[in-house]
Amino acid sequence: MFLKIIESLRQILSENAYINIVVNNTIEKNAFSEYEKKLYTKIVYGVVENKLSIDYQLQPFIKGKRVKPFVKNALRVGSYGIDYLHLQDHYLVNSLVETVKKKDYKASTFVNAILRTYQQTPRRALPTTDKIKRLSIQYSINEDLVKLLLKQYPIEVEQILEVKKHETNTYFINTMKTSIEDLKKCLDKEKIVYKITKEMILEVNGSLIGTALFKEKKVIPQDKSSIEVGLVLNPKEHASVLDCCSAPGSKTMQLAIMMKNTGEIVAGDIYEHKIKLIESSKKQLGLDNVKPILADATTYDYQQKFDYILIDAPCSGLGVIHHKPDLKYQMNEEKIASIKEIQQKIVEHVTPFIKPKGIIVYSTCTINQDENELFMRKFLKDHPQFLMLEEIKHLPSDEQDGFYICKIQENSNA
Question: Which end of the chain has the lower number of beta carbons within 10 A, N or C?
Fold first, then answer.
């Protein structure tokens, strides 16, 4: 298992692979026990989440030495296991040494010596004179993002960075397959602790995967903030809707259910494999009002106008870094500038496809003001035919992700 952990870290930290995809694929391809699945997932997410902090503590032990990436990741696993999981020292170190030995005997003696010394050595204090560096190391996030958050949220920055992965799981209630009353009866019968809000959002402390409710598609896994987006758009039955950045399709399915399988939702995405995900979800839920199309939202001619448009734009993801920790290293000033350019192209291209008096919702899962409220204020200033109806912004918290939603209406006399 430790070999798989080290290999997964190589893919994520050296090749910029998405952590959730790497973890899911590794678990699917290996016959891990339930304990191994949990430990594998915990260590991979934990090392990635705390990478800069771990590297800061390891640095004095490997300074001036040429350490291969495979060995560096083994040391990171060792540091994380010792400092965060408090695993039995002999089990952890021996397992890592044996794992490295299979690839490089000489390196295994190096790993053994470093980790044995590491166990006996007090941890380094954080820098005190450089706040940006201190926050970067303490919360393991690259300095570009620290600077951005400090500039925009000087008071809340540490509160934002301290947010951990949520313990609760959230589901969208499929009102086409169950009623709130029947759902409550089922949950009460199974003695599941739950909370229902807005007649569509179900929160539970455990997981419903494997239960009858899940298998029968009466509840659908979906982030709370994601569900909020659909509730703000709130399309009427028999309406025409464009979801221009649809994949993986959870919001599309929610809208289709809210519309009671009437009207039409054109669900576009730029990637063919993601269109297949939408097709699969549509089929599983028995929805006929979803029309998946391969479409680049910056250029595609949709050949019709819509009552509602959802622009769930690609973004920097700064509202969800607590459960997508790889973003803390992959996202930087240059990438954010590129994303902002794409957002502008999408909004400028798609908004003319709205009908007179039609409703558009622009949403992101970031808290970067330049991608959110500042961007939409400029858009509205440059396009006076649109009127803002509603604006919602949440910073990340222990309750839910950080996100932004802006609802506007076409208000010309056309």
Answer: C
pTM: 0.90
406 has catalytic annotation: no
Determine the residue type at 382: D
* CA 130 – CA 261 distance, rounded (Å): 56
Q: Are 149 and 189 in contact (CB under 8 A)?
A: no
β 264-269/169-173 pair status: unpaired
Side-chain half-sphere CA neighbours of 172 within 13 A: 26
Distance CA 80, CA 312 (A): 36
Catalytic residue among 244, 245, 315, 365: 365
Residue 195 backbone dihedrals phi, psi, to 5 degrees: -140, 130
Q: Is the pLDDT reported for residue 132 higher than 70?
A: yes
Question: Mind listing the pLDDT tens digit for each residue in 11-64?
Answer: 999 998 989 889 989 998 988 888 888 899 999 999 999 999 999 999 999 988
Nearest-5° Cα angle at 365, 202 to 400 = 35
- For residue 384, whether the previous peptide bond is cis, meaning omega lies within 30 degrees of 0, is no
The per-residue pLDDT for 413 is: 66
pLDDT per residue over 381-403, tens digit each?
999 999 999 999 999 988 889 99
pLDDT at residue 414 is higher than 60: no
User: Predicted confidence band at 199 (pLDDT cuts at 50, 70, 90)?
Assistant: confident
Q: Residue 88: which pLDDT band, with cuts at 50, 70 and 90? A: confident
User: CB within 8 A of 346, min separation 6: which ones?
Assistant: 244, 245, 297, 298, 311, 313, 314
Spatial distance between the Cα atoms of 256 and 264, rounded to a whole number of angstroms: 8
The CA–CA distances, whole Å, from 254 to 200, 223, 246, 287, 391 equal: 10, 12, 11, 11, 21
Q: What is the mean pLDDT of the chain?
A: 92
Neighbours of 37 (CB within 10 A): 15
Alpha-carbon distance of 76 to 37, in angstroms, equals 19
pLDDT tops 80 at residue 77: yes
**CA-CA-CA-CA torsion sign (159, 162, 167, 168):** positive
Q: 90: Cβ–Cβ under 8 A, 6 or more apart, which residues?
A: none
3-state helix, strand, coil in the chain (%, to 5): 50, 15, 35
